[in-house]
Design goal:
five-stranded mixed sheet; 490 residues; Rossmann fold; alpha/beta; binds adenosine-5'-diphosphate; binds alpha-D-glucopyranose
Length: 490
């Protein structure tokens, strides 16, 4: 796994959760899994680490760069983790960006990281069957393997490239090719070029052996102009190699029966602890402590993708017209943060907001809320609605991407379903769907209880999806090796 995030060492969003949980599950199923991540200044020192004796070099156009490599294991797993220490590129705490925006040296940072990942395999004398790359940061890995490294010791490694979010593509100057010591002929639209620049995501999509993305619906959506962010034609071109596999969740880290972040445990059969969590949540976020009021939770990066500006638009009207409370945790866009801060100030006791990254509070919101709001414009998979359902918190979500594949629409009068879905990304839909959920809570409590039981009974573990990945790895390996056989017979 070549990955920019890996839970529990470092995570910005769900990518870190996904790679950590998938690696753990694959190792459990007997695969030899190794992960490499940069050692950012904010990486958590979990477990025992050992520095490798040999420095790891990467020969780039700016001159050779060297890193120290630390070795450890994924907690609770046999999977090995290598952390790449390089002060100038990774000493800062943030992963991709700070308040001033994306780092201007992101191309160099992640090209170095990607090259170092391949060089580590060479140094270890370890040839994996498959190198699994995650999002744009690792986009050049498959390109080297198809060109400069094709006849080298790693030439037989297949690549699987997972799209977690097509919105971020890693555009950089064409100098990036030279920096990576890749041949200049690659600078064309069927390789790495887009809009006169290098596009690392596109590079990965053209050159990897197989492509996956994190839900079947998103796999279809990204082949259309509305969701393709300019790369839908590439995805249609590679449609035969593109597979949508739904993310699972780490059912140990997210288990209401054992969650150390919750003040009280609960299970589907005994929800008393959930009431205690709700009271604790209301207290912590300055909401009126009232068991009868429904709490709508949000845990999210605050960006346009997540559609929370739509919620912000109607939040004053909702809390004025409905007896409902909001518990919101997030960081991101400054305007959105300001709007939320203002609404919390305007509606004390009804809207509680914390603008921070706080894993404990994220668990408490899942545990204590009754509903979980996700008005996403796009959502490749989404993990928070899965955590929510496991914690008996019903999603109120836009019907897009993985939300379609995981949330089953409530059928009023039957108690069937696990949440409340709406089609259009507009504020009216958000207002009325929250109204529908709220009315269900007050007017149809038996059906609300049934929905909660349905949600908690769903299986979102990795068992099945990890097997799907193993199957895709097999296809990728066979395709790569047959490419070699064909080459040899020509
Ligand atoms: P995305 O990766 O697009 O952000 P996901 O739903 O896949 O969306 O994953 C988000 C992950 O990040 C979840 O584990 C969620 O709990 C966590 N998260 C997001 N914002 C915060 C925050 N402010 N504090 C703590 N955890 C957060
Ligand atoms: C991305 C997506 C999110 C997905 C996560 C893990 O950050 O935005 O929908 O769940 O990756 O794959």
């Amino acid at each position: 796994m070549v990955t920019p995030e890996l839970d529990p060492f470092v995570k910005v969003g769900g990518l870190g959760d996904m790679v950590g949980a998938l690696a753990k599950q694959l190792a459990r199923q007997g695969h030899d899994v190794r992960c490499i991540i940069p050692l950012y200044g904010s990486v958590k020192r979990v477990g025992d680490w050992e520095a490798r004796g040999q420095p790891l070099g990467a020969d780039l156009a700016g001159g050779p760069e060297f890193a120290r490599v630390w070795e450890t294991r994924l907690p609770g797993s046999e999977a090995k983790v290598y952390l790449l220490e390089h002060e100038r590129f990774f000493g800062r705490p943030e992963v991709y960006s700070n308040a001033a925006g994306g780092f201007p040296d992101n191309d160099k940072r992640f090209i170095f990281f990607s090259r170092a990942a391949l060089n580590l395999c060479l140094q270890l004398g370890w040839t994996p069957d498959v190198i699994h790359c995650h999002d744009w940061t690792c986009g050049f890995v498959p390109v080297w393997l198809n060109t400069t490294d094709r006849t080298g010791p790693l030439g037989r490694c297949a690549t699987v490239f997972t799209i977690h979010n097509l919105e971020h593509q890693g555009y950089c100057h064409r100098h990036a090719l030279a920096y990576a010591k890749l041949p200049d002929w690659l600078f064309n639209a069927a390789n790495v070029e887009a809009c006169g620049a290098v596009n690392l995501m596109k590079a990965g999509l053209y050159h990897s052996t197989k492509i996956t993305t994190v839900s079947p619906t998103y796999a279809r959506e990204i082949q259309t102009p509305a969701f393709g962010f300019g790369l839908d034609h590439v995805l249609r071109f590679r449609a035969g190699d593109l597979i949508g596999i739904l993310n699972g969740i780490d059912t140990e880290a997210w288990n209401p029966a054992t969650d150390p972040h919750l003040p009280a445990a609960f299970t589907p059969d005994d929800l008393a602890g959930k009431a205690a969590c709700k009271a604790a949540l209301q207290r912590e976020l300055g909401l009126d402590v009232d068991p009868r009021k429904p709490v709508f939770g949000v845990v999210s990066r605050l960006f346009r993708q997540k559609g929370l500006d739509l919620l912000c638009e109607v939040l004053p009207a909702i809390v004025t017209n409905m007896q409902a409370q909001f518990a919101i945790l997030g960081t991101g866009d400054a305007d959105l943060e300001n709007d939320l801060r203002h609404t919390a100030w305007e509606f004390p006791g009804r809207v509680g907001v914390k603008l921070a990254f706080d894993n404990r509070l994220a668990h408490l919101i899942q545990g204590g809320a009754d509903f979980f709001v996700m008005p996403s414009r796009t959502e490749p998979c989404g993990l928070t609605q899965l955590y929510a359902m496991r914690y008996g918190t019903l999603p109120v979500a836009r019907a897009t991407g993985g939300l379609v594949d995981t949330v089953e629409q409530y059928r009023e009068g039957t108690g069937e379903g696990t949440g409340f879905l709406f089609e259009h990304a507009d504020e009216n839909a958000v207002y009325h769907t929250i109204g529908w959920a709220n009315a269900t809570y007050y007017d149809r409590p038996e059906e609300f209880a049934t929905l909660r039981a349905n949600a908690m009974a769903r299986d979102f573990s990795w068992t099945h999806s990890a097997e799907r990945y193993a199957q895709v790895y097999g296809w990728a390996r066979d395709a790569r090796l047959s490419g070699f056989a064909k080459h040899a017979s020509e």
